[in-house]
Amino acid sequence: MLMLLKIQNDFDPVLSPESSPFVLKSTKQVSYQDILKVLDGSKVCSSVQNFTDVYLRLPGIPSNGQLTEGECIRVRICEGRFAVLIREPIREGNFIIQPKVDFDISASTVAGLLKLGYQAVAYIEASAVIYQDGKILIEVDHLQGVTNPYIQIKGTNKEIVSSAASSLSLDGSYTTKSYLQIILESLPVDDNVTAGIHNQQAARLQELVEFIQSQVC
After folding, report:
1. Which of 27, 40, 53, 153 could form a disulfide with 124 if both were Cys (CB 3.0 to 4.6 A apart)?
2. pTM of the full predicted structure?
3. Helix axes 199-214, 107-115, angle to 10 degrees
4. Domains of the chain in sequence order
5. pLDDT tens for residues 172-184?
6. What positions does the domain CYTH occupy (predicted)?
């Protein structure tokens, strides 16, 4: 089966490390009023995004135990659209430096990957409340199956990000774990794993695969 995937994006591998956002991530609870205090009130805007990330893995790839993002193609389903998210984060102390490439794809492309043998092995369902003022972006993420929301402070200026996080009293509460790692660690320790898939996620993964296939005309 021959597949042609045409990608159009403004990614520049030379400039990407310089323009990549610095991210501080924490589970500390922060109020809406406190978030607004660190943003420029005249420029702040907010939005809500509900999304599902499906991780596709080619069977036979050697694994060192727990599934990692580097072993998978990450497909985001959001507002009826599909996109591939490529992340190669660099961890520097408490910071996650996040070069990224995102591009839209069609449902038929995702279905084609499944036909080629890629297997849906994990998923994340989440709701994100996003606040931004042009200098920094503050994202409050509610992950399905995880009790406490996560807050992320993002921006291309490391000092501004650090200052905003300190103003929100986040110092000492940071994590550099990926959401995939957090979700997998939240599953029961005795949950059986069949063909690399946690049984607790298997039924929903099958539903997502069927949904993807149903979107193909």
Report:
1. 53
2. 0.85
3. 120
4. 18-186 (2.40.320.10)
5. 999 999 999 999 8
6. 19-185
